[in-house]
Amino acid sequence: MEFLAMCGSLRAESFNGAVIRAAAELCPPAARLDVVADLGKLPFFNQDVELQAAPPEVRDLRERCAEADGLFIASPEYARGTSGVLKNALEWLVGSGKQVGKPVALVTASTSPQGGDRAQAWLAETLTMMGTVVLPEGLRIGLAAAKITEGRLVHEATRVELRALLSELALAARENKAD
Ligand SMILES: Cc1cc2nc3c(=O)[nH]c(=O)nc-3n(C[C@H](O)[C@H](O)[C@H](O)COP(=O)(O)O)c2cc1C
């Protein structure tokens, strides 16, 4: 079982990037993450380009999404929404339909106490419109700077929550396959 993992931050020391590294460690034994290294390499979405021929980076993202059993997304909250790079990736995916029916686990890590709750709600709405099945309970990691040290998620209670979220994603993916 494989989950396509996307990070909404391009920052080298990103807390959300650290969450994705932790998720790779905490996946159930039968699952692994296929981590998209850098969403910043995607060109800006342009429907004219899409209608001619999708660029290679976009084709690669779409193929990896098609092969994935689910999606794992970790994103910062910027100005009460998700990041531009992540929204751009979702815009390239939406028309492909490769995401339809796949379960999605959402995590937002923020330095604020709310843990990016507004970005998460915003993402859930967009991803639902895109035909994915967003897990009802995502994870909001507030005060992330106190929980992530030297690029590692060290806060034990959050690691437990992240492990549980990944188990739910695996369960949803298994049920999806059985249908
Ligand atoms: C331009 C900008 C806007 C931000 N807006 C919000 C916001 O609306 N809500 C929030 O909780 N945090 C906000 N933050 C704080 C980010 O969530 C925080 O910097 C977070 O660590 C970024 O994620 P990263 O560590 O993965 O790069 C903002 C940060 C920046 C740089």
Counted beta strands: 8
CATH topology: Rossmann fold
SS strand fraction: 15-25%
Reading off the top of the CATH hierarchy, the class is best stated as Alpha Beta
Q: Percentage of helical residues?
A: 40-55%
Query: Total number of helical segments?
Result: 6
* Biggest sheet layout: 6 strands, parallel
Question: In total, how many domains does the architecture comprise?
Answer: 1
The N- and C-terminal alpha carbons lie at a distance of 16 Å
Q: How large, in whole angstroms, is the Cα Rg?
A: 15 Å
In one word, what is the shape?
A: globular
Q: Order of SSEs, N→C?
A: EHEHHEHEHEEEEH
CATH superfamily caption:
Flavodoxin domain
**Given the helix and strand composition, which structural class is it?**
alpha/beta
Question: Any idea what the CATH architecture is?
Answer: 3-Layer(aba) Sandwich
